[in-house]
Design goal:
about 85% helix, mainly alpha
Amino acid sequence: MSASTGDLLKIELMANNQEFRQLAQEHKSYETRLDELIALPYPNDDERLELAQLKKKKLLLKDKMESILQSYKRKAASH
């Protein structure tokens, strides 16, 4: 199985772009916490609120990462 161009760009950005790497690590930590909250059989009000907030934060991080990825693609295409 070969990696897609997008996957290769993400790998390169993880290695060479501190902002992208930091966003990806934060995204992963949100994902881990979301998994914990989703696994709760009866979340309380605070946990449900945290779940909703984390989903929004995770989506914002994903959007920022995608923006960096698209910017990198545009720069690569212009060279």
